[in-house]
Amino acid sequence: VIDSFFRTFKHFLLEFRRLESDLLKTSSEIDPETSLSHIESRYKDYEKDKERLRRFSEPFCLILCRLENYEPGMKATLKGKQINALKLVAFLIRSTIRTIDDAYRQGQNEFVISCKNTQKPDGLIVTRRIQRLVEAKEIVVHDRNGDVQPMVLSFCVAEPVPGDPLDDLLRHMRGDLNKYIHDTEDDPEKGTTLEHQELSPLQRYIEQS
Questions:
Q1: Which residues contact 171 (CB under 8 A, 6 or more apart)?
Q2: Do 112 and 106 touch, CB atoms closer than 8 A?
């Protein structure tokens, strides 16, 4: 009973912090196209998450979500009607994650999702939910050559440690996706889901050499 009470209370505190954070965000911190936070606001949120990890051993997951065959300016349709693909995917992401979690616009065709009190296995479940929603919508992408194909997403899931700088972690996660596609000669338009493996600077240098 006591454990249940503390879990409920901890969830309440996270909800409260999330609401407080949203209320304090200015219009410059919100991406007007997707209504998600700009990645710049993720830096201070990330430090707060790492502090909770250091002090209370509360794990969290970062998920890098990449649209493999779409970039702004390309045409996308849903049931024959043209849509804003980034806005729709952002909506599906927001619909999938909990209210205590966060989602951010990153670059031209990427999103970053932060899941509180979450370890990698549950982070992978989140990616599968998003993937199923996108597949169910049957979003069609029209590339610049006039060819059409279903929209494809790739994901990389990481469980940060206190010493991980955000920029380095996201760069390594993006590199994991690029390396997988290059090494396997896989079709990037098929998408993939990877778990980011934490490596020391020396291990990463050796692997990249």
A1: none
A2: yes
Per-residue tokens: 167: 């920029």
Residue 107 phi, psi (nearest 5): 65, -155
Cα separation, 31 vs 39, whole angstroms: 9
Asked if residue 171 lies in contact with residue 179, where contact means CB atoms within 8 angstroms, the answer is no
CA 60 to chain centre: 12
Q: What six digits make up the tokens of 144?
A: 């610049």
Nearest by Cα to 38 from 107, 96, 133: 107
87 CB-contact burial (10 Å; exposed 0-12 / middle 13-18 / buried 19+): middle
- For residues 162 and 142, give the distance between their C-alpha atoms in angstroms, rounded to a whole number: 42
Look at the pTM and tell me if it is higher than 0.85.
no
For the segment 74-128, what is each residue's pLDDT rounded down to a tens digit? 999 999 999 999 999 999 999 999 988 999 998 889 999 999 999 999 999 999 9
Residue 181: what pLDDT?
Answer: 76
In sequence order, the β-bridge partners of residue 149 are 141
User: With contact defined as beta carbons under 8 Å apart, do 37 and 31 qualify?
Assistant: yes
Q: Which residue carries 């990153």 as its tokens?
A: 106
